[in-house]
Write a structure and sequence with these properties.
329 residues, alpha/beta, nine-stranded mixed beta sheet
Length: 329
């Protein structure tokens, strides 16, 4: 009888231990602190909040995404380095900055690389793009969650009309500090000047730069129309944004959490991209109302031809042609 009691007691203890272990596992939660440079009124911020809400709901609170706007966690380049070290931080970035680690992927940020939202979404199926993403993850610690976030066409915003590359001659145009961005602006005729997004307004006031190349909603959100008078529709870059996290952190997540993070990123990204298309139209109309002159009669053929020099300067002609053939055939 005593032996039976001991067996039952041991069985109960084992069951209690297993239950406690199971409960501890069930209670294990993960947090991603996600940083972006845009303001709280930008469509992307609302899209990131929607992504966060869906991930939390789908994982029953097991994975929480905390969204920080206006670079509250720090400068983009610094954040990316923290991500590489395994921090539970995410960053909205672009292929220009990722090209600092895997040079080929920078082509996505080159002049006239993709010229429609449809082409941008097809990039996810490109074998070459998939290979570059794997290299980023395996060799540099950067996991691309998705890149279905298309921010819109970038144009030159200055205090004079721009119709040809020659009109940009001598103008210092603000760019992010990445080689493909610098070379793109240089190829199109201007003098690239590296500057953080938050410094553009005072930089224009202090005449450190003569203009910037941005999307329409950036101008309205940051009130840059107060220091810039003309928007010239060069459409030189259709900006595709990448959401990156630490490979180490991502691999530590349960598989179902990884799936939720990726799938909800893609869904929210494509929804937000559609919102951005409408936001472009609305922001353009708002800028006209505020007194900005919009230059539409731009020689796009001349700009396309000039833009090729950026790929040549960085040795990316072959990479550009390869990816374009994959998404256009």
């Amino acid at each position: 009888m005593n032996g039976l009691r001991r067996m039952l007691s041991a069985a109960c203890a084992a069951a209690a231990l297993a239950l406690a272990h199971s409960t501890a596992q069930a209670q294990e939660t993960y947090t991603l602190r996600f940083n972006h440079v845009l303001g709280p009124s930008e469509p992307f911020h609302q899209g990131f909040l929607k992504w966060a809400e869906r991930v939390k709901e789908r994982t029953n609170g097991g994975l929480t995404v905390e969204v920080f706007h206006s670079a509250q966690l720090g400068v983009e380049e610094d954040i990316i380095e923290q991500i590489r070290q395994g921090a539970n931080i995410g960053q909205n970035t672009d292929s220009a900055r990722l090209g600092n680690y895997v040079p080929g992927i920078a082509v996505v940020n080159g002049p006239y690389f993709v010229e429609s939202y449809e082409e941008a979404f097809k990039l996810a199926d490109s074998p070459t793009m998939q290979g570059w993403q794997q290299e980023l993850a395996d060799q540099h610690g950067l996991k691309v969650v998705c890149f279905d976030w298309v921010q819109g066409f970038r144009h030159f915003f200055t205090n004079k009309p721009i119709r040809t590359p020659e009109d940009l001659d001598g103008l210092r145009i603000r760019t992010p500090p990445a080689p493909i961005w610098q070379e793109s602006v240089r190829a199109l005729g201007a003098v690239p000047t590296a500057m953080n997004f938050g410094d553009i307004y005072p930089g224009l006031q202090q005449q450190a730069v003569d203009g910037a190349e941005l999307v329409y909603p950036n101008i309205t959100a940051a009130n840059l129309n107060e220091v810039l008078s003309h928007g010239s529709e060069t459409k030189h870059i259709l900006l595709v944004n990448f959401q990156v996290v630490s490979s180490q952190w991502f691999n530590s997540l349960p598989e179902e959490y990884q799936t939720a993070l990726v799938e909800e990123c893609r869904t929210a990204g494509q929804e937000t991209s559609a919102v951005m298309q409408k936001a472009e139209e609305n922001a353009k109309a708002e800028l006209v109302k505020r007194g900005m002159t919009i230059v539409e009669d731009v020689d796009l053929d001349a700009f396309r031809k000039a833009g090729e020099a950026a790929y040549e300067a960085l040795g990316l002609v072959e990479a550009k042609n390869k990816v374009q053939s994959e998404i256009r055939n």
